Amino acid sequence: MESKPAGKKIRVLIVDDSASVRVTLTEILNSDPEIVVMGAAADPYAAAAIIQNEVPDVITLDIEMPRMDGLAFLRKLMAQRPLPVVMCSSLVSEGSQALMDALDAGAIEAILKPKLGSRQYLLDYRVRICEAVKAAAVAKVLPRRVRPSYQVQPKLSADVMLPPPSERPVRANTERIICIGASTGGTEALRVLLEELPDDAPGVVVVQHMPESFTASFARRLDSLCRVEVKEAVDGDWVMNGRVLIAPGNDHMLLHRSGSRYRVEVREGPLVSRHRPSVDVLFRSAARVAGANAVGVILTGMGDDGAQGMLEMRQAGAFTIAEDESTCVVFGMPKEAIRRGAAQAVFPLDRIAGEVLKRCG
Predict the structure, then answer these.
(1) 18 is catalytic
(2) 260: pLDDT strictly greater than 80
(3) Domain ends where: 122, 150, 178?
(4) Taking the model in full, what pTM does it have?
């Protein structure tokens, strides 16, 4: 996994008009030994003053703020002094479009604001925000005190959701399926890939690391741009030609087989490979029920989620592709898949759609 040089912490600037959120985020981020909060600002003007004196490695940015909203500040920042930005917002439904605009404007990640909840909620949230900040710290950006409740939790594998694939080959059929996993930078990568698919392309299932409440609007945005239908998956949805199903934020998505057809199961569960939804869970389920009928693709992202699942897909007979470093925002997940021998081929983003369709016949 990419990281800062040993001993050098990732310096974060928090920009949020809520004092309680600034305090909570500071406690959460400072609890990670690789991160330190170097400042906090109540609005973009105060943030700009801080940046003049000390440039942070990463900025966490709210959307709704006084004097200047976060989206306007993001656009100015990307045009004048591009820095890695993680949007941290409580906006849902109607506000989700603003978050999609923020991703288009150059934000690296999008995370829900921390809220009062159970201890497990705070533990899960800590993992997500810290991973997002670490991913942002090593992302390519182009112009446009430890509390006990925050201790790092064990990293779980897909075993907690379903058993490994059997060694018996999956029966071949005529239904082909495309399985895609992505994280940091994946919102744009998915747009590029899915826009290349014809309206009769084989069914596609996608896990994109994204917070709850944002996957629905992300799917609607892609649906408006692509020839294929794109929707947030609902438990029991059928996978069919010309349709793309995106796993909902905060739920795992698994593939099931019914005769020669496939449907998805949307299921609650613990974080797997520090994510929910997890690419490893989707890919393992594809290895179990689709085998050589599937094509697996792993796109830009930090960490190793999906590498083990892709290896299992390849061992089950699927053809597997990793995105080349030259087009990745963060060459983490593809790099790990390549290192483990899970990827049979490596292509830049603009070639992946064509190669997938070729493999699907």
Answers:
(1) no
(2) yes
(3) 150
(4) 0.73
